[in-house]
Amino acid sequence: MVPTARKIRAILLSGMLSVALAVSGLTAHASAGATAQLNAAQIITDMGAGWNLGNQLEANADGYPGETAWGNPTVTQALIDKVKAAGFNTIRIPVSYLRSIGPGPDYTISSSWLNRIQEVVNYAYNRGMYVVLNIHGDGYKTIPYSWLICDAADQTTIKAKYQKTWQQIASRFQNYDQHLIFESMNEEFDGQYGNPTQPCYSNINSYNQIFVDTARRSGGNNGSRWLLVPGWNTNIDYTTGNYGFVIPTDSYRSPTIPSGEQRIMISVHYYDPWDFAGEENGTITQWGRAATNPSRKSTWGQEDYMDAQLKKTYDKFAVRGYPVVVGEYGSIDKSSFDSSNNRYRADFARTMVSTAKKYGSATVYWDNGVNGQYGLGLFNRSTNTVTQPGIISAIMSALGGPGSATRYEAEVSPAVCTGTIDSNWSGYSGTGFCNGDNTVGAYAQFAVNASTAGTATLRVQFANGAATARPASLIVNGSTVQTPSFEGTGAWTTWVAKTLTVTLNAGGNTIRFNPTTAGGLPNIDYLEVTPSS
């Protein structure tokens, strides 16, 4: 994400090592996994949930990179440990170089800056996490001393500088295994939010090609490393559509890579609809079909749009073996205008992660280190504490896994719904919702498979749209657990707050919502089950 002037203002309101010490941070983890080569599906799954160390190593003061320049504290191992403990397995580290790069023809990067970058990389890498390392702010016209400008006149000089910069980065990290992913650049475009232009797009393609060739020829594990490249401004439409994006060739890759596999990823970002996700006002504060106030909900960019956008990336790239990474997504905090906003921010994150999983993509949440109004922070970087547990829980529940909350969705009309889950509490089956349709005798039923017997906590979300919701009984494996309803009569339009603990058998279980009147059920968006034992 570009740090606009207003974004920097929000941030303001809210020891370098020697080369020997920096290199010593590379533990046995690198050499031990040097030969590991994961294919597209494997690495996307292994990356798990991702988090951006945003507005930190890409921050600068008058063009000189500095991690505290935009108001965030110095990055520590304790912070990264807290991020890992929260469940994230991938950290994207945006980096700006700017005036740390010396004059040509060598364009030598300041050794102290490169050492510090390596130290921060090691904080995550040495914990077994994936790290995405990029060149971030050097392509923004709004950043002082930026130089990777696709519509600038002297492209020969720009490309020479870009090649030398990546040569130094790739050489420094050549012995790291596949847990380190290089990303060529960030949101590269001409600065105008319209259709892509030429020759600017051709120059972006050239940068990506220079990046791939340089990384591959720099030695060590770089011959088989996964490399991540964006299209125009990381925009899905301008990358998947007929606007000029070209996947770089990979002529110098290691012969150890199977001929039928790729080692190039495609980077996209997602902040739609912008009036909810990024526009700094209190007008649009709700998102998704659980929204209760139509005047606070955008007229576009809901679940169906998100699904269609990510399907484009799947159809264009994933089916050809090029995995997609949603390198940034998120929505700013507007809870000062609407106390329910964080619930919709969690819904947005949950839907993004689950939809990306459906289409074989990885996701990396954009955390800018800012908490409070318009912030995107999930953690307080000064105290190393979690500030948005609801959003983090939503991200982890969308991925599933042992001990995580798992959402079951299904779509059968008019009202008989079935959902399934596998034996290790991960994944879900089906999409959409149970349409109650006020049908006489309608019910919603979910099948839950458990590897062992135990207890679980249930939460259910009833969709907006029913004028008068009917109370319902909850029946688990034929026995009534609660009647007549969760919250009593009236409209069910938000999360049920009560904690409902049920006992599940080993193997198959049936969770059913029965109406207690002839009128049927309201729409049920989804059921969430969290195993407690």
From TrEMBL:
The keyword Hydrolase is annotated on this UniProt entry: yes
Domain of life of the organism encoding this protein: Bacteria
CDD domains: CBM35_pectate_lyase-like
Keywords: Carbohydrate metabolism, Cellulose degradation, Glycosidase, Hydrolase, Polysaccharide degradation, Signal
Keyword Hydrolase: yes
Domain (CBM6) ranges: 406-530
Signal peptide per UniProt: 1-22
Annotated family: Belongs to the glycosyl hydrolase 5 (cellulase A) family.
Record's protein name: Cellulase family glycosylhydrolase
UniProt source species: Nonomuraea helvata
Lineage, broadest ranks: Bacteria, Bacillati, Actinomycetota, Actinomycetes, Streptosporangiales
